[in-house]
Amino acid sequence: MPERQSEFLTIVPLLSSPYLLTRKMARDQFHGVYHHHPEIQLEYVLAGSGVQVIGDHYSRFSAGDLVLFGPGLPHLRKPDPRYSHKDQMENFEVITLIFDLALFSETMLSIPAFKPIRQLIRHSSRGVIIKGEAQAKVVKLLTESLTAKPVQQIHLLINILDCIGNASELKYILAEPLESLPSENHSDRIANIYAYALEHFRDTITIKEIAKVANLSAHSFCRYFKQTFKKPFSYFLAELRINHASTLLNETDRSISDICLESGFNNFANFNKWFRRMKHCTPSAYRRKYKLPVVPAP
After folding, report:
1. Which residues share a beta bridge with 61?
2. Which of 9, 30, 40, 221 qualifies as a cystine partner to 216, CB 3.0-4.6 A?
3. 121 touches 41 (CB < 8 A)
4. Reported confidence tier of residue 3, pLDDT bands at 50, 70, 90
5. Positive or negative CA dihedral for 21, 96, 31, 14?
6. pLDDT tens string 171-207
7. Residue 121 to residues 13, 49, 126, 258, 297: CA-CA distances in angstroms?
8. For residues 32 and 84, what is the distance between their CA atoms, to the nearest angstrom?
9. What is the set of domains in the chain, with CATH numbers?
């Protein structure tokens, strides 16, 4: 039986073309695993929401988010569970642009006019969130690219990168680039931990249980997780639960006690403690501030 290859290392979107642009529903688009590739990826979420891991940073994403993933930056995006239902699949859509740096020669990037693009590429391994006026311009150029001819697409790509490189409202996801890419065994372990935690965060997950997923002893797992993720597993698990609770507070009218249980907390005092710690307010105050308006049916 051949040795299993790491899913983390073998996902390479471009097999024969240095440029790929797609507009698809999430179930056709997202790998659902923690992976990396040598190409640069720009992704715009037209509709939908979910969780994402970029490098060692966990957060949520939602409609309107525009993110640039640099070469080799490990990432995972997973749509919220409701989009797996047949009647909800069309409510999640993304535009993804992936291109090879080989499209740009060193000579081209050394031209003074290309300095913003050169600097953007250099810092893109930290992950870049594009907002404000630049976001609107880039989304317009991406949309034009979907129906443009191949030569026009490359012209639009240069304009997209120039627009991002000159933007004043950029946010880097990682404070510093990752020091190195994980080895195959290490990357498999990270992928397994993320996959299990994202699937079971509503349940009670013991250290012994998650350590078994990582193929480590409980003591070794605690040391490994804190060294790798810069936080204890208990804090990471609470982040998953609080972010899920925040989404339910924003998007539903469910009672806070129901949301507490649905998010994996077994008592309200513990839920309230973690919520205040991470969101700096109570769940009810968060709902009043951030709840999405209900749009009446036509």
Report:
1. 50
2. 221
3. no
4. very low
5. positive
6. 998 878 776 555 555 667 887 888 888 889 999 999 9
7. 19, 27, 10, 45, 44
8. 12
9. 7-172 (2.60.120.280), 201-290 (1.10.10.60)
